[in-house]
Design a protein that fits this description.
The chain is an alpha/beta fold.
C-alpha cells in the first residue's frame, strides 16, 4: 500500500524545481509529497532541450537521477550548462537536493572526483547513516539503518567541508551535506513501484551478474520496502521544509 504523507498546511508555499535527465526517471514520490503539502513543482527536461529557470524563479532545487555519467559532456552537452547552473544555485545559497546522478553532479561542481565504483549497486540494500548524520537536524529523526533502492555504477569522494552522510556494503560514500543547505544522496528513497518498473524496462541491460546487482525477480520482491522508504523520504523533505 502506498504511504500518503497527508495534506498539511504550511506557512509558505515552496516553489520546487526539478532537473530531469531522462523521461523514465522523474520525481516519483517527491511529487506526491509536494502535492500533499500544497507546494508547486516544475521541471527542466534536459532530454527535450528545455531552458533552465532564473534563480529567483524557485526556492528549492532537486536534481534527479539518470543513466549518464557526469563526465559525458560530449555525449550530453547540456551537462555543461547544468553544472554551471547547480554551482550558481549553491553559491546563491539555494536549498539543493541531489539524488543519484544529481548527487554526483553536486560532488563534481564542488570539486570532488566522481569515478567508477568498485561494484555496481542495483537493487534494495541496507544503508547506514554516519554518527554525524544522526546528529544532524536533517537526519536526526530518521532510522540509523534502513533499506533503500540503488541503481548506480559511479561514486564520488566527499567534497571539502562536507559531512559524510551514509554508506553501504557496496559503496562507502552514499551521501553528504554541504553548508547545511545542500544534500546529496547516492541512494533512492523517492522511488515507487512505477518508477522502478520504468528503470527495469529502460535499463535492463545493466542487470548483469554482480555481487551487488539483484535480478528483476529479486528487485520486484524488494517492492515490499517501498512504503517504508517513502515514509523516510517524507521525514527528510519535512525537515528540509522547516528551513524555509
Amino acid at each position: 500500500m502506498k504511504h500518503s504523507p497527508g495534506k498539511t498546511n504550511t506557512s509558505r508555499i515552496l516553489r520546487i524545481h526539478c532537473l530531469q535527465h531522462v523521461p523514465f526517471e522523474n520525481s516519483a514520490y517527491i511529487n506526491d509529497w509536494a502535492e500533499n503539502k500544497g507546494h508547486s513543482i516544475s521541471e527542466t527536461l534536459f532530454f527535450k532541450n528545455e531552458i533552465l529557470p532564473r534563480l529567483d524563479e524557485f526556492d528549492f532545487l532537486i536534481i534527479l537521477g539518470g543513466p549518464m555519467n557526469v563526465y559525458e559532456d560530449e555525449k550530453y552537452p547540456w551537462l555543461i550548462e547544468e553544472k554551471k547552473f547547480i554551482a550558481s544555485a549553491i553559491q546563491n545559497k539555494k536549498k539543493v537536493l541531489g539524488i543519484c546522478l544529481g548527487a554526483q553532479l553536486i560532488a563534481d561542481v564542488l570539486g570532488a572526483p566522481v569515478k567508477s565504483n568498485s561494484n555496481k549497486e542495483i537493487g534494495f540494500f541496507n544503508t547506514s547513516l554516519t554518527d554525524k548524520a544522526k546528529a544532524n537536524p536533517f537526519f536526526s529523526n530518521l532510522p540509523g539503518d534502513f533499506i533503500s533502492f540503488h541503481w548506480h555504477g559511479d561514486t564520488f569522494d566527499i567534497p571539502d567541508s562536507a559531512i559524510k552522510l551514509a554508506s553501504s556494503s557496496a559503496c562507502q560514500n552514499q551521501g553528504f551535506i554541504y553548508n547545511d543547505k545542500v544534500i546529496a544522496l547516492q541512494f533512492h528513497l523517492e522511488s515507487t513501484s512505477k518508477s522502478i518498473n520504468r528503470l527495469l524496462k529502460n535499463c535492463k541491460d545493466e542487470l548483469i551478474k554482480g555481487n551487488y546487482i539483484q535480478n528483476t525477480k529479486k528487485i520486484k520482491e524488494g517492492f515490499r520496502n517501498i512504503d517504508e522508504m517513502n515514509k523516510i523520504m517524507v521525514r527528510l523533505l519535512d525537515n528540509i521544509e522547516k528551513l524555509f
